[in-house]
Amino acid sequence: PESYDTRRLLDFLRAVKSGETEVEAPVYSHVIYDVLPDAREVVHQPDILILEGLNVLQIDSHATEFVSDYFDFSIYLDAQEPVIESWFVERFHALRRTVFQDPQSFFRHFADLSDEQASALAHQIWESINGRNLRENIAPTKGRASLVIEKGADHRVTDVFLRKL
How many domains, the chain? Predict the structure, then answer.
């Protein structure tokens, strides 16, 4: 939940929603695992703005304004936790063969792990960080979504739930 600058995101959404001609957004790098300090994406009065994020439906009990206040419609993609963990491990292996190879990569030190070491580490990361984040911070927001799409292990949609609008 602390992984993004909520105040900055709210400022961005407020500017877009109020019709500002050009609004700048930071660019995130999966190589350095952070915002690129000198890069910006400029948004020009979009008719539709899609905001993707794991924690965007969260409510902070101390806040008076929420990211989701600016949503006309929200979608929560869901799957069973063991399926999501499996996808995480697969993605970890794929990244190990690609972006982790980059000398600038935040995760460069994982690139040379054996398959067995990488699998063990991915499962450990899942249990200690990602799975915990799913259970404690992401899954509880499911009921706040306008639409919930359930996916199976093969990534196919298995169910759709539309809240009364």
Answer: 2
